[in-house]
Fold these 2 entries.
Entry 1:
Amino acid sequence: MTGPLLIQYGTQAQKDFFLPRILSGEHVWCQGYSEPNAGSDLASLRTSARRDGDDFIVNGQKIWTTLAHCANWILLLVRTSTDEAKRQKGITVLLVDMTTAGCTVRPIPNLRNEADFCEVFFDNVRVPAANVVGEIDQGWALAKAVLGHERIFLGAPSRPEYAIKRLERLAQDRGAFDDPGFVARYAKLRLDLYDLSAAFERFARVLRAGGVLGADVSVLKIFCSELYQRITEEMLTVAGEEARLWDDLHTGAGDVDAMNLYLDSRAPTIFGGSNEIQKGVLAKGVLGLPSSF
Ligand SMILES: Cc1cc2nc3c(=O)[nH]c(=O)nc-3n(C[C@H](O)[C@H](O)[C@H](O)COP(=O)(O)OP(=O)(O)OC[C@H]3O[C@@H](n4cnc5c(N)ncnc54)[C@H](O)[C@@H]3O)c2cc1C
């Protein structure tokens, strides 16, 4: 997500420094958008950056930052001005080295007691002004551009594809294909996955041709995340009482991590902008309906 942003809005110096390090894996990025009181309502973010000579001094907190404990750089949204009447103004995009003094990462254990996401604290963290992407106070448009890239990425059929292969493996092994009820439900999931892949391809073609995606890309994220959930729910139906929190299910063709996938499928309807927010985007941006946000 940082790569496309820098290609579109970065200075030449930023592109030269960061892009090769993203490709080599030397820099691992996390996304510092959400805060305790700024999730869906992102424009409420309060992490501040105050100018001090050639630097900014950052103070505040981010939350739900995926894999922040594995990252060494964070793409950070900060508030650089509170003067403007519109809250979207006064937000700036900063590239922050997480090894800088004052930056602390605290992992949040999930239901399986694993660390997937974290809280990230900033206590007088000094960041060079050269690490601002785009214009100071004008970061909202950039933040939205990143979310647009994220939506096509989150709408890619790879997650449901992986899950349906595991469902097929489990169903073969447990004899579920002998049940006409299962076969009917499976056929619907399979056909929906074909439809999702076709829709994804249509959006990908626009990008490949150098085009820009519109608000309608939100449909991809809703379709993909809900299909992923329906597939993993069917997997638990096939697994029945075997589906336990910790164990993989054994089949002749290899193990199936049914409960892991089911739990994993809860997240995509929330992250990257919840599905309710995506429906709002479609209502306003595609259907032209009145909207309060
Ligand atoms: C697994 C996971 C990973 C994440 N990773 C990251 C990350 O790497 N970086 C990052 O910055 N954030 C990350 N997030 C945070 C994510 O972006 C937020 O959780 C999300 O934007 C929702 O914000 P919230 O949790 O504050 O919920 P809220 O905004 O408080 O929403 C609560 C509920 O109200 C609904 N709601 C809110 N506003 C509206 C509205 N206007 N219309 C209709 N319904 C509404 C929401 O849909 C939701 O159901 C992650 C979240 C999860 C679950």
Entry 2:
Amino acid sequence: MASTYNINSTFKLNSGYEIPRLGFGVYQTPPEGTQKACLEALKVGYRHIDSAAAYRNEAGVGEALRASGIPRSEIFFTSKVPTSGVKGGYEATKAQIEKSLKTAGVDYLDLMLLHAPYGGSAARKGAWKALVEGVEEGKLRSIGISNYGVHHLDELEQHIAELKAERGNGGVISVGQYEIHPWCARNDIIDWCAKRNIACEAYSPVVQGARWGDKTLVKLAEKHGKTEAQILLRWSLQKGLVPLPKSVTPSRIKENAELYEFELSKEDMAELETNEYAPVCWDPLKSELDN
Ligand SMILES: NC(=O)c1ccc[n+]([C@@H]2O[C@H](COP(=O)([O-])OP(=O)(O)OC[C@H]3O[C@@H](n4cnc5c(N)ncnc54)[C@H](OP(=O)(O)O)[C@@H]3O)[C@@H](O)[C@H]2O)c1
């Protein structure tokens, strides 16, 4: 069946830049294996890599960008300011931007996210201001947040309005990154982002392998002649999300990018989604504003 997407599909961000709709995650990819995994991904067509300072493998991603022979402008590279940076507010986030650029050996990042909303309101506002300055200085192309609950997002909109009044530019949110899969669908977050044209990225999109063998998943895999991972990733794409599957295994890296020769029906999509709230990763969304 014809499919709406292909591996080159992109989403136009509020920053004006385009983000590839399929990403390649490197959380828990060992630093010494990161270049190899990323080169494998680039070889089979991924053009979007999701790292973070906390993963300690930004250097390996940078090496892969250079070794691939693909123009830098064609690869979308994300990093994240770690929890300690966000808690440290403006100064710590400024320092982290420099550190990430230096570690990866690049002169700009396509996307920098605040990894989690810890640190309290003043620290979050300072961290965001540092990202806005990073964009103004040409070091960051797009900026966003990860793991912010709706209460943190509402607060961020307030901070953006305040910064606009204080300094003329409060910045724009281009991306939100969240654990999303059929056992943690987060439709409130998806709606909040959709209303503002914010790209919603899905981490742990194959649930870190925790749901293999699920009855509905197996049934849909058999129906479409696809693997369970491919069904979950296709679900994510059809929800309008930007899935970020991680693998260090060449056959899986390839498999996770072969999502475009089939389509889930409306009924398949609904049957797969559950009302469960069962994240497999951490869950900073629930933290209080003063945390
Ligand atoms: N912002 C955040 O707080 C946050 C948190 C978590 C993750 N993330 C991002 O999202 C990315 C993905 O999330 P994740 O790493 O937690 O989980 P994931 O992608 O759902 O799962 C990765 C695990 O599934 C295995 N796997 C991948 N494809 C498979 C396939 N086709 N068949 C069987 N097993 C498969 C991988 O094994 P092998 O590697 O051994 O092949 C690995 O153990 C991360 O790498 C990171 O970039 C962000």
